[in-house]
Amino acid sequence: MIQTQHFKDMLSERNIRIEWVDETLEKPDNTEEHEDGTVHFLKKVQERDNKCLRVIVNNTSLPKKLITAFFDRRLKRKYNES
Predict the structure, then answer these.
(1) N- to C-terminal Cα distance for the chain?
(2) Sheet containing 51-58: order of strands
(3) pTM for the complete prediction?
């Protein structure tokens, strides 16, 4: 997979470790396929107070591209309840 510059910038800006991204892609808690050709990988990160990391991948490009990653505040409460 190719890391876009935006993806790299967001990891740095948001203090997201590449190890967390790798774990999210390899063993997601959930995935969402979107009509725009992206797949969203979701995983709780214990080291970040169980916040939900969302990693977005462009699944239609070859090779696939990592678009962005962020801690999804909307999902934190949902994931912590389960």
Answers:
(1) 31
(2) 2-3, 65-71, 51-58, 38-45, 30-33
(3) 0.88
Q: Where are the beta strands (DSSP E) in 1-82?
A: 2-3, 30-33, 38-45, 51-58, 65-71
Q: How far is CA 23 from CA 36, 42, 68, in A?
A: 24, 10, 15
Q: List, for residues 8-19, the tens digit of each pLDDT value.
A: 999 999 999 999
Sequence-distant (≥ 6) Cβ neighbours of residue 71 within 8 angstroms: 14, 16, 45, 48, 51, 52, 53, 54
Mean pLDDT of the chain: 91
CA dist 75 and 42 (Å) reads 9
Nearest CA among 42, 77, 45 for reference residue 56: 42
